[in-house]
Amino acid sequence: MIETDVLILGTGIAGGIAALKVAQAGHRVVMLHRGTDPEQKNTRWAQGGIIYTGPGDSPELLTQDIITAGAGLTFPAAARLLAEEGPRLVREILIDQLQVPFTRGADGEFDITEEAAHSVPRILHQNDTTGLAVNTALMAAVQAEPNITILSPCTAIDLLTLSHHSREPLDVYAPNTCVGAHVLLRQDGKVETVLARETVLATGGLGDLYLHTTNPRGTRGDGIAMAYRAGARLLNMEYVQFHPTAFYHPLARRFLLSESMRGEGARLTLRNGEEFMQRYHPLGSLAPRDIVARAIHQELLAGGEPFVLLDLTHKDGAWIRSRFPFIYTECLKYGVDITREPIPVVPAAHYSCGGVATDLDGRSTIERLWAIGEVACTGLHGANRLASTSLLEGLVFGHRAALAIVEALKSRAYPPFPRIDPWVYQVEESDPALILQDWMTVKYTMWNYVGLVRTRKRLQRARQLLRELQDEVEIFYARATLDDGLIGLRNGMQAALAVLYAAMQNHTSRGCHYLDESEKFSPGFSIMDNPAAPPLGQGF
Ligand SMILES: Cc1cc2nc3c(=O)[nH]c(=O)nc-3n(C[C@H](O)[C@H](O)[C@H](O)COP(=O)(O)OP(=O)(O)OC[C@H]3O[C@@H](n4cnc5c(N)ncnc54)[C@H](O)[C@@H]3O)c2cc1C
User: Can you tell me whether residue 72 is helix, strand or coil?
Assistant: First the structure.
């Protein structure tokens, strides 16, 4: 049993910033790191950059751009807050404190670039590996902080709530209170109980639920699933953003071709060279990403082609190599020289605009449970996310949650930690073939039926398939020896169903939820309360 002031699940930008701030205020922090495999966090793979500020920019203009991208569903206070606090925190934390080596021009000034749907150039980047630069600097600072203990490799299994996990009388706690998590220490297979005064979900997104995704392996909605089982409210889960341009090659895992390529002049064409985007939007290749993604999807369906092309060959080769070194090298590994030939691309699941519903300090609807970064939904992105807002979101809301948690630790009277029932180990062998096959079902079902274009028939078919599979997975989970793969499959099923149910509730096409046969008069959003929560007070 481990006891701490704050438990943080996840080591991406949101978890890292929150951990640093809480620890620097003198509190003990335990952080969970899923593995040494850097593939497992989105932060590491962010390419284009992070919003900062540029000539002619202002908080009002940025707020307006976020709201416009959000297709009428953005919570304006969240957008305003990001626009007002974000650039200052980039300067104070990323540039001054962590000294992230953002790219500078020959004049020594930051190289500020433009991206699709931004009114002015305002993006700070480290060539096309911004996330790697941020992650390296942040993790170095986290590892050097004496108040932070990192458990690694370690996978959270479930959040601990009194109503689910303790026989303690409830009179000293608010009814639905989170007191930490059960976690799997993967080296020896032991399940540890981590008790915390405050618990923070920073577990990232869910792109890996889909057949094609820009996300690394393991972005399977663990935090969404854990929060849902604990009884938290989820919001806007149907709004999964698809990135229009992921590299297509039969042997390569889809990786993202940054939106800044189109910002820098890359054109989308069919294989016959036709530039088709003007048929869909006056901004052509610079149209908002959901419109571009659906346009490509339509063209692929209409033409029966496996991919379209992204063409940057009219630009100077040396410039391309220095501006997009990662993309250049990765494509070349598969025989595509982007300085000489157009790149085959397909759309791919990219970002979850919805998540665990929180206020603007990251408080969820469960006492003492916070959610920040991609796993959370403050309403910032509405029905669609503006490019390069999510690293900033992790920074701003990670920072705000940390301040609020430090305040809570000062002002709250915490009762002693409750007694938690010991973990019951199962002994049946896990079966990798079952896990693999079940994942294929989830990914194909989500891609074809709950993907870029949804219809009622497709959603109903998905419900049939996924519900049946979930029953099987739960039985399997209840009997088999626990490992990261099994935990992930159970969570992936739950998260997929959360997206599906939200899509079924929302009868209006908007932003990145596109429903054929959409209805004009419906709320246009989804709120999922907690039917999963057991009656209060019943421990088991
Ligand atoms: C290819 C790509 C390019 C992108 N480019 C940009 C960009 O240019 N600009 C921008 O702003 N955004 C970009 N994004 C989005 C952005 O990177 C993410 O939204 C953001 O980094 C999310 O940060 P996070 O801290 O919320 O989550 P993550 O960075 O994904 O971190 C989640 C953490 O939680 C851990 N975790 C998950 N489940 C468990 C569990 N059960 N137990 C323990 N730990 C767990 C993970 O291992 C990881 O450490 C990009 C995303 C991708 C995939």
Answer: coil
**Which residues are part of the catalytic machinery?**
289
Q: Do 39 and 217 touch, CB atoms closer than 8 A? A: yes
Our measurement of the distance from residue 329's CA atom to the centroid of its chain's CA atoms, rounded to an integer in Å, reads 26
Mutating to test ligand 1, I would choose from 37, 390, 393, 477 the residue with most ligand atoms within 8 A of its C-beta, which is 390
Cα 373 to Cα 391: distance, rounded to the nearest angstrom? 8
The type of residue at 353 is: C
CA distances to 76, 105, 132, 268, 345 from 100, rounded to whole Å, are 30, 15, 10, 33, 31
pLDDT digits (tens, 9 = 90+) for 311-368: 999 999 999 999 899 899 999 999 999 999 999 999 999 999 999 999 999 999 999 9
CB atoms near residue 275 (< 10 Å): 13
Centre of ligand 1 from the C-alpha of residue 426, in Å: 31
Q: Hey, what are 37's tokens?
A: 């495999």
Q: What's the pTM value of the predicted model, to 2 decimals?
A: 0.92
Instruction: Give dist(CA 361, CA 409) in Å, integer.
Output: 14
Q: What share of the chain is helix, strand, coil (3-state, %, to 5)?
A: 40, 20, 40
Which ranges in 49-129 belong to alpha helices (H)? 59-69, 76-89
Please state, in angstroms and rounded to a whole number, the distance separating the CA atoms of residues 173 and 161: 10
Distance CA 41, CA 11 (A): 8
Write down the number of H helices and E strands in the chain: 14, 17
Run of H or E residues at 297: helix 289-303
- The alpha carbon of 318 and the centre of ligand 1 are apart by a number of angstroms equal to 31
**Cis omega before residue 416 (within 30°)?**
no
